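Review box. Two proteins, two foldings.
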Amino acid sequence: MDNRVFLAQCDTYEQAESAVGRVLAAFGGAETILAGRKRVLVKPNLIMPKKPDAAATTHPAVVAAVCAAFVKAGADVSIIDSTGGPHNKAVLKMLYSRCGMEDAAKRSGVVLCYDTGSRTVETPDGRVIKKVTLLAPVLDAEMVVSVGKVKTHGMMSMTGCMKNLFGCIPGLGKPNLHRKYPDRKEFAGMLVDVCEYIKPGFAVLDGVWGMEGAGPTGGDPKHLRVIAGGFNPYALDLAQCHLMGLRRDSVYTIAEAASRGLAPDDPEKLMWLGDNPERFRTQFLPAIKHKNDAVPEILNNCVGCGDCKRICPQKCIAIEDKKAVVDGKNCIRCYCCHEFCPAKAISLG
């Protein structure tokens, strides 16, 4: 296992190109990382159409810097993602535009992927899932680069470079998997299975501004001032957990990766490269303050848009008198409703 994690201080996104350059250089540079591969797919975290300064999505400056480096090294690069809603060209157009990806693609000389095709593949080595449907461009790429975002997460405690690859599952396939694997540990195992099948060639983490509190979409920006990278997305997530001050036993994806020998079980066993990690250590507020089995609470600022009802895999949310109502008995605590509420009108306790 490769336990190297490189940290580059990056106080503002104007410094992203320099910081990403430092990260890639520590691993031999983009050409060495490519190892002869040409078709590269860059996968940022674009969970929903949010402006970059909301800190819910990977910042376009980081995406552009990563893309430009691989283009310069001779790769054909494209950017792709899929939200938890319908996966079609109209949705992608809005997503890319709102999240700043159109600008990132233009600046770096890459293309935005609008191929909405998908294929179902066998995952014989998977411990939890033996068959999964993935975006066709992901399956056709020679190398996938995960460009994650530092954020807290209601169900998984945090999101990062490994969970970012859940976005390689098209649209409404995501809530279907939440319904199939409601247990958090089992869901974490499924995420690791997906990551192991995709096997990203490299991972970069946008931690210049992260999100704390009601993540992954409704929290508050927090200045962490770092861009990190490495070959091992699990090692990078372990490093992220350490920098965020989160309890490792609350992040089931890290525990699952460690149990499979894919990453250490302790950040002290990582090979820290670059800037001193103590420079960036802080304490992020968790997404759930009290207990991890809280039923989502609908707040008074609910506008009754119905997005939560549409995304709920259990179909246990109704709109009554222009306000969402949650059936707590059937709720599986996946918190998809919380993730996709545009009004930040859902609390997790």
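Next protein.
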Amino acid sequence: MTYDGSPADFVFDRWTEGSAPIEEIRKFAEAASDPGSEGYIPKKDRIAVFDMDGTILSENNPGDMEWALYLHRIYSDPGYRATQEQKDLAEEMVQVIRTGIKPPGFTARKNRCNAEAFDGMTVGQYVAYIKDFISRPSDTYDGARRRDLFYLPMVQLMEYLAACGFTVFICSATEIINVRTTIEGIIDIPMHQVIGTEYLITASGQGDADGMSYVMDWNDDLIYTSRIQLVASGMNKVIKLIQGIGQCPAIAFGNGSGDFSMLTYVSQNPFYKGKCFMLLADDDVRDYGKPETAAKLREQAEEMGWSVISMKEDFKTIYREGIKPKFRDIGEVFGDGRFI
């Protein structure tokens, strides 16, 4: 990460003065990096993991970054001819953004249609497509490109933990190439420290041959396919952490039910007392927060013994100066025939 001074001198100027979560994190991190402390964690075991959408990045683009990219592909890409199922899913997605209610089977349909919408692209084409998309002006925030919607306090927190000797990972339900492309130039971690949903990648000349028997040719391109290997949400996040890191993190940050399993896993770290935080999207003035939903999430987190971070109470700033919501509520994005 970018900060190279002493952790003791780190200034949390993106956070409100006296923020309780920051004091808690400072205490934990200082103990973890002090060999004389009971809370000491050797550097090799000092691992932090963050969810992405809704934890370090706005989920209102509209929807998380993957949803927004899908809607752009279906509604706004003149070179793409969507199937009827993909169009139907886009309409469902719009309703979920409006109401916050997911109908039965929605997530499975969303995963399948999203993968199919980019099937056949080379990896290079897919990366270029994402870069173009996130460089465009946001449809839901004034003064921002889509890539500008990272929560500055959380980015600063990642920098602090890195300064304390933590290896920082991201574990996201969003497709892994999408995550790596989105954070590039903003979150300064190696790409191998990004964990996410994975779709099968094949060589252009491979056809139906198994990857164990096919030998890549000099002229082969790497092709992104719609074959989902594992969606990194819920319990699958725990599986991905075990496979991707090989050991349990010591501290974790999430923002919703899709992170519950990950936080439970970290809470049960068998060697050190794991620390977990739930970010509450409760600021409905500076952002599209939902205080009632956040209050229920707070209750759930506290019942599990997890600490909470309130965007309303703990964030001095959310985004850089000049960035603010365009609408009173995210549900208005599709009002009066407006689309992204």
